[in-house]
Specification:
Elements (H helix, E strand, L loop, with lengths): L2 H22 L20 E4 L4 E4 L8 E6 L4 H5 L1 H11 L2 E6 L4 H10 L6 E4 L4 H6 L6 E5 L5 E6 L4 H13 L3
Parallel strand pairs: 3-4, 4-5
Antiparallel strand pairs: 1-2, 1-5, 3-6, 6-7
Length: 175
């Protein structure tokens, strides 16, 4: 290989590494649902399928928390479990799963057979989140502040870039 070929190869490799780095740290803004930001999360009474308790919106006022809509049939939902665990460890935020368009039986079977990354496993029986926040698929991530206002609504799978560039800065914000 001559000197010119080596230089071209090195430039190409540097370009590919840079491209890979940028892709890994990229969050597509079209999946950030800005219309829900700063809206109050709708009133809800979710049934926790693991504790048989009803959780009200007011039970969570005073703390930041995350709701992640998921389904047992959703491959992306399963793949993000490790990132959910990492986010919980890094941030100490409570993360609640909201079973979407699925059954309690399927949810309980998944919890029994897999790692359960959620602090609570709710079912949205009356489609409160679906209807008021226009959830048309899974997964969706909704970060809510201490006052009950939505600070982030992301329609898609959890990624390291989303955690580092959006979620953690919001959680660290003392406002």
């Amino acid at each position: 290989m001559n000197k010119t070929s080596r230089v071209i190869l090195l430039i190409f490799l540097a370009f590919m590494v840079t491209l890979g780095f940028l892709a890994k740290n990229y969050v597509d803004p079209k999946y950030l649902n800005q219309q829900n930001v700063n809206k109050e999360v709708p009133n809800f009474n979710f049934f926790d399928i693991t504790t048989d308790k009803i959780i009200h919106k007011n039970d969570l006022i005073g703390q930041k928390y995350i709701l992640i809509s998921y389904a047992t049939w959703c491959g992306y939902c399963h793949k993000q479990h490790k990132l959910i665990e990492q986010l919980k460890q890094i941030s100490k935020v409570k993360i609640y799963g909201v079973l979407w368009n699925d059954t309690i039986e399927n949810g309980l079977a998944q919890i029994k057979n897999e790692v359960n990354p959620y602090d609570g496993n709710f079912i949205d029986k009356n489609n409160i989140l679906t209807n008021s926040l226009e959830l048309y698929g899974v997964p969706n991530l909704i970060l809510i502040d201490e006052t009950g206002k939505i600070k982030l609504h992301y329609m898609g799978s959890l990624t390291n870039a989303l955690i580092n560039n959006y979620i953690l800065p919001i959680l660290r914000d003392k406002k």
